[in-house]
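Researcher: Next sequence.
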Amino acid sequence: MQVGLKSTSRCLFVVVGMLTAEEAIGFIFPSLVRTGIGMTHVPFRGAAPLVQELMAGRIDISNSTLPSVLGQIQSGDIRAIAIASPQRNPSLPDVPTLREQGITNADAESWAAFFAPAPTPQPVLERLSREIIAALEKPSVAEAIRKTGFSLKVRDPAALRPYHAEEMRTWAEIIRIAGVKQEG
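Model: Next structure:
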């Protein structure tokens, strides 16, 4: 999350898109409401315009994936106040997590996985998995990914399945609580 709060009692909370992971995490910040700061939600069409507006001081607070803003944080153009993952990010070791700041219900990590069509033969899936894991475990590849701000957690298919299922349950509950309705 990046912040540049003005001395007002109301601020613009900006997110990318409609119900992206960034927006959904906004729904699990009830503790922000308890601070007395009124939040006006403003959806944006992409991280680049969001960062431009944040740097220009036209918005007050935002959350984004770290790779979208790491350069601006490192250059001092915006200030990071919290990391939403359960542990600090090695790219910004001095930025505390939300948990460390007392917000215990807002863990949210960006993650990516490789998927294949359901009828893909098991031997093909196993080979793809082995090759992808081998590539991600190469020190040069892992370091390149970490330099962007991502944390690298390599999971094989057996480890991914329960993690993916838990993520689906978590975000379905957030969407239900927030009362989000599908558009169109």
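Model: The two ends are 30 Å apart (CA to CA). The longest strand covers residues 10-16.
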